[in-house]
Amino acid sequence: MSTDASPDITGSTSAALNGTPLPADDPERQLIAKAVREVKDTTPLAQSFTNFVTVNLVANAQLAAGGTAAMSYLPDDIIDTAAIAKATYINVGTLLPFFKDALGNIARSLQAMHHPWVLDPVAAGIGRTRSAILWAFRSAPPTIVRGNASEIIALAGIWDLNVPSAGSDTGAKEGTTRPAGVEAVDDVDSATNAAIVMARYLRSYAPNHRAAVAVSGATDLVTDGDTVYRLPGGSSMMTKITGAGCSLGGVTATYLAVADPLTAALAASALYNRASEQAAEGCTGPGSFQTRFLDALWNVTAEDIAASPIIVSHVPASQNSVSPDTAGTA
Amino acid sequence: MSTDASPDITGSTSAALNGTPLPADDPERQLIAKAVREVKDTTPLAQSFTNFVTVNLVANAQLAAGGTAAMSYLPDDIIDTAAIAKATYINVGTLLPFFKDALGNIARSLQAMHHPWVLDPVAAGIGRTRSAILWAFRSAPPTIVRGNASEIIALAGIWDLNVPSAGSDTGAKEGTTRPAGVEAVDDVDSATNAAIVMARYLRSYAPNHRAAVAVSGATDLVTDGDTVYRLPGGSSMMTKITGAGCSLGGVTATYLAVADPLTAALAASALYNRASEQAAEGCTGPGSFQTRFLDALWNVTAEDIAASPIIVSHVPASQNSVSPDTAGTA
Amino acid sequence: MSTDASPDITGSTSAALNGTPLPADDPERQLIAKAVREVKDTTPLAQSFTNFVTVNLVANAQLAAGGTAAMSYLPDDIIDTAAIAKATYINVGTLLPFFKDALGNIARSLQAMHHPWVLDPVAAGIGRTRSAILWAFRSAPPTIVRGNASEIIALAGIWDLNVPSAGSDTGAKEGTTRPAGVEAVDDVDSATNAAIVMARYLRSYAPNHRAAVAVSGATDLVTDGDTVYRLPGGSSMMTKITGAGCSLGGVTATYLAVADPLTAALAASALYNRASEQAAEGCTGPGSFQTRFLDALWNVTAEDIAASPIIVSHVPASQNSVSPDTAGTA
User: At residue A60, does pLDDT exceed 70?
Assistant: First the structure.
């Protein structure tokens, strides 16, 4: 009934900014290594509905990580392929008019099929067509959202999530009207609360109650709504090629084809940090960087990825309640 | 009248699996060398209506082979350009809703112009829009079809061609309801009969009664309906970049601009085998492989291509009858 | 009222073919160096509505030159982004049916916003949809047009500009019905008069009365309508990759975000000449050339660009009158 009712979150999540290193023997590291190996061994199919600018890089990155790719812009294709693919990636970077209805229909079909998918809300806040599409996803949300800080904050606003302001307990919502471009104008930490609230919102719709939000930046942030993981490292050359973020979203879907949402998001982010560092060594500009980056996606080992530095902080249990709007659930 | 009548082929073609090396002085090798040289010398224009994922690689591959490229998604563009281009490439990998009518109209216009074209039936069998488009091509078919084994089998099914089962004479049709993804799930040999029947079907519509079908895989297969050519070699790294098959289709159209369909398909397949082998030497992953592959397309000589290992087997003369449905011919 | 009235230009401009070297201390060289540095220092956003073939290269070239990129195909996106971007690039290489209305609407909105933009009239003269779009731009023209000689001549024809024939004073118009493909069939010099007349036409609509036309070829030509600059150099390998011209248009928009139209066009052309020369050294084919070219766009210095050989010739003052049709102005 109340599709515009605001989901609520009790208390502040702004304390979740510090943390401790994830132990070397933490089971999550084993899950990451297992996911990376399983993709290389089983070449799972993850399909994509992604923007025209970087669709080639998304497919090549998924192949370099070991997966199989299929790209489409038609609901009948996507639904047919969802029956044989294990995950789907949707990216709203470049839109055509017919996408407005198509993407909402696809999301509802994927929801009915209990099919996991990754959303990349590129340029959230720009253009009424994009806003209408992102709004349509509110009642048929993805399993993982991956974006830069500005996009995560803007999407939380579009979805009318009740995000507490960072550093205060006043309950004032942050960012709900903030437009964001394709480049982040906010730093990763500023999206921490939006990411936590969003992850809780997503999991309230997930069949197995598991979801994740990944915020890319100088230090990446990944959360399942209970725990915040921060992954430092990577190369600043990633901001000098187009599609670094988009292809990270695609590879996240590839890992989601074999792993739980949190592990998929962590594995993809760690792979990208290690591969971009490897690519930056000896590159002589963005052209050679991109060539070397695809090579590195292919060469980085599961062990290297799983051994990545990860800082973990737990969101206080008292904050673990969230009452999402459920009007749109199937 | 009977657009759904099934074309018939008398007898089995499944014997055509073995063969002998094509002699070094076979005239076909001279035709291949001539085609490769003529492209480098005359930079012929072949235009493309191809998917958004790999359109850049298709154009770059055509340029690297020596040709000129023009890409479009509009019937008025395609028809205008067909008047100055010598061949056209159509690839149904990524579709938009308006393609459903546009592609059928384009095929009928090309047929009326007696303009040769290459079809890449990417993902044949997936999605009702793609199936409708491929069905529309049945009565205005291409000069060459190039696909992986699954796509060739699926397209033969969509076109309702009467393909005898491999290894039997029961006349049971194979693959008519088989859906295939963008990756082949069948090996090349399993598509031999479908390829032969399809080549005969295509040539029954061709103004000069010449056509070809090319099946890509570990060992490529090319047939004009009378003879089956198999081309071993190439690099498995071709499966780790997106667009290897699509760009092969584009380069086939480039050669079709200067040569007969059989020669064009053989030359393109042989070029791709030699270039991918050259690219694989010393590459350190799929990024450097793709860069080196474009260089190799540029550097491989007409002599190297024409000297490629080719195994030839003739389809028994008794099988050389085919009664295609002609309801759709202009 | 008279949207088909022909703009007039008094006298011949065909004398403007010779010239003298631009002095090392010419202020224009300082403006070029300043523009290049300012892009690297301030990473300005230039957005693009560009073809699907080379959209990735356009974005990567803009990033390599130091700018920021955003790509879209929707009027609401473009208009929203125009409010935060400093320039826009529109390229009509690949069209979809809805572009026919969308692009005219976008041009009119940009005009109302006094927002500078660059047009790349790819394949001008091919297809009625493209011609209709280019015609729509006549009354809401760009700040800069960049194309090859055939495209500039064809666009002058579509706009019904009164271009005097080269080498005569008869006033006979040249090229008004000439169709041109994506490859130039005319040499740069043959488009000199069309470029001069077009630059005068563009500036008659420009808020600050400044505009430029750039003709790419073996020797590039840039004019603001008063002076003709010719920039020799560059590598012929640029014709062996797709998107050399498109990405030059995109980078021109990046410079237009920080500089006047003439300086932007000169800086982009000089950068491309220097970068392509650097890339050609040691490349082993078009694949390595493209990788090295993106690296070179990143590495070429403002000093190198500003010191480029430039031949300058002034159009006689008596020719400096033009009476454009103003029926379509806002």
Answer: yes
Torsion of Cα atoms, B135 then B136 then B139 then B142, to 10°: -90
C-beta of residue C120 within 8 angstroms of C-beta of residue C90:
yes
Please state at what angle helix A149-158 crosses helix A128-136, rounded to 10 degrees: 70
The answer on pLDDT for A98 being more than 80 is yes
Residues paired with residue B89 on neighbouring β-strands, in sequence order? B48, B118
Average pLDDT over residues A181-199: 85
Q: Is the CA virtual torsion B300, B301, B302, B305 positive or negative?
A: negative
- A55: nearest CA partner in chain C: C56
User: Measured between CB atoms, does C293 come within 8 Å of chain A?
Assistant: yes
Q: Is C189 helix (H, G, I), strand (E, B) or coil?
A: helix
Residue type, C37: R
**Helix or strand run (H / E) with residue A311:** strand A311-314
CA angle A95, A100, A105 (to 5 degrees): 125
Question: Do residue B181 and residue A70 have CB atoms under 8 angstroms apart?
Answer: yes
Residue B80 CB neighbours (<10 A): 22
Whichever domain contains A158, its CATH number is 3.40.1190.20
* Structure tokens, B43: 């930079």
Question: How far, in Å, CA of A9 to CA of A11, rounded?
Answer: 6
A188-197, B1-10, C227-236: range with lowest mean pLDDT: B1-10
Residues 296-315 of A with CB under 8 A from B: 296-299
Domain that holds residue C283: 39-316
Residue A59, pLDDT > 60, answer: yes
Do residues C213 and C199 lie in contact, with contact meaning Cβ atoms separated by under 8 Å?
yes
Whether C254 has its CB under 8 Å from any CB of chain A: the answer is: no
Q: Per the structure block, which two tokens stand in for C180?
A: 């041109």
User: Which backbone phi and psi does B313 adopt, to 5 degrees?
Assistant: -140, 135
Residue C328 lies in a domain: no
Q: How many domains does chain C have?
A: 1
Would you say residue C169 has pLDDT above 90? no
Residue B177 Cα, gap to closest chain A Cα (Å): 14
**pTM of the predicted protein model:** 0.91
The reply to whether B328 falls in a domain is: no
- Per the domain annotation, does C207 fall within a domain? yes
Residue A133 lies in a domain: yes
pLDDT score for A185: 65
pLDDT at residue B129 greater than cutoff 80: yes
> Percentage of residues in chain B with pLDDT exceeding 90?
82
User: Between chain A and chain B, how many beta carbons pairs sit less than 8 Å apart?
Assistant: 96
Residue A195: predicted pLDDT: 98
User: Residue for token digits 């109209």?
Assistant: B105
Of the pLDDT bands very low, low, confident and very high (cuts 50, 70, 90), residue C207 is confident
Query: Which chain C residues are Cβ-neighbours of B290 within 8 angstroms?
Result: 287
Q: Does B290 touch chain A (CB under 8 A)?
A: yes
**Which residues pair with residue A279 across a beta bridge?**
none
B112 touches chain A (CB under 8 A): no
Token readout for C270 is 């000089």
